[in-house]
Amino acid sequence: LHARYVLQLLCETRRVLKEMPNITHLSTSYSREITVCGDLHGNLDDLLLIFYKNGLPSEQNRYVFNGDFVDRGKNSMEILIILFAFLLIYPNDLHLNRGNHEDYMMNLRYGFTKEVSKKYKV
């Protein structure tokens, strides 16, 4: 995705996240399920497999992603682009919790900073 569109996506996602509370309370019932996922670590194939098996996020198909979206794998940016786009479309049905790999120092150590620099040359 061209850097201009990535920047627009990041700015809009930031705006939406700033409006959301720091703690999200979710409840479910037998009639309304939530898929909980964690530790994608830049592995796009894992995210696509989750969506293939469980369906795409929607009002009827809610998701919680428990952090560690980035680092280690080679497709962290693509994962963020997909998750942020779904967050903007379904802000009440897709929830993103920050993990320890969504930290500046972890990004430097485990590869996300290098991936961003390589894909979007400054």
Q: Give a short account of the largest sheet.
A: 3 strands, parallel
The number of strands is: 3
Number of domains: 1
Fourth CATH level, the homologous superfamily: Metallo-dependent phosphatases
Separation, N- and C-terminal Cα atoms: 15 Å
Strand order of the largest sheet: 1-2-3
Query: In terms of quaternary structure, what is this?
Result: single chain
Helix content: 40-55%
CATH architecture: 4-Layer Sandwich
How would the global form be characterised? globular
Task: Please report the first level of CATH classification, the CATH class.
Answer: Alpha Beta
Low-confidence stretches: none
Helix and strand run = HEHEHEHH
The amount of beta strand, in percent, is 5-15%
The secondary structure category is: mainly alpha
Helix count from the secondary structure assignment:
5
What value does the Rg take, in angstroms?
14 Å
Mean pLDDT: 90
User: CATH topology, anyone?
Assistant: Purple Acid Phosphatase, chain A, domain 2
Domain Serine/threonine specific protein phosphatases: 97-102
Pfam families: Metallophos (PF00149)
InterPro entries: Calcineurin-like_PHP, Metallo-depent_PP-like, PPP_phosphatase, Ser/Thr-sp_prot-phosphatase
GO molecular function: metal ion binding; protein serine/threonine phosphatase activity
Structure write-up:
Belongs to the PPP phosphatase family. Residues 97-102 form the Serine/threonine specific protein phosphatases domain. It catalyses: O-phospho-L-threonyl-[protein] + H2O = L-threonyl-[protein] + phosphate. Its cofactor is Mn(2+). With 122 residues, the chain is mainly α. It is 47% helix and 11% strand. It has a single domain, classed as Metallo-dependent phosphatases (Purple Acid Phosphatase, chain A, domain 2, 4-Layer Sandwich), CATH 3.60.21.10. The two termini are 15 Å apart.
